Amino acid sequence: MSSPSRHSSESDMTILKNILEKVAQDVQALSFRQLHHEAQLKEKDSQFGLMQNDLKMVKDEYTKSKKSSHTSSSRGNESYGEQSLRINEYYQPPPTRVRREKKESPREVRIDLPHFHGKENVETYLDWEMKVEQLFVYHNVSEENKVSLATLSFQGNSMYWWTTLER
Question: pLDDT grade, residue 78 (50/70/90)?
Answer without folding.
Answer: very low
